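Workshop exercise sheet. Pairs work together: one partner reads the sequence aloud, the other fills in the structure field after running the prediction. Swap roles for the next sheet.
Pair: D.N. / O.F.
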Amino acid sequence: MNLDTYFAGWGRSKGWKPSDPNHLTEREYLLQFAARPGMFIGFTSVRGVTCFLDGYDYAACRSGGRGLDGFREWLITNHLRRESSLAWPSVVVQIALPERDLGTDLTPVQETRILERLFDLLDQFLTERETIA
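Structure field:
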């Protein structure tokens, strides 16, 4: 099974339903992205997803939104639980695959695990942020 098919099923299990992106919260929009990343970026991969999210963050901040503001700090405080100078994509990899040998390429199983964990962590972060706001 390819990652696009896998995450389409994952999105359905989370209750994703296509809807007009102009009327979605940040969390709802990013859940739609998580359910069909290949539709947004052409090919589902950790690198593609993190690049999309970085671009999304940049665009959101430029237009007055919050984007992923605080995500890295939230990851470190709530899930890594130790100091880190790494950017948030690398922190997610450390959380998803703490035993990973950094000198090796990611396997398809590892890519899937990282993306599952990323999308779950992002949903938790945005849910908490919506609750606080």
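Discussion prompt: The chain has one domain: 3-132. What would you look at next?
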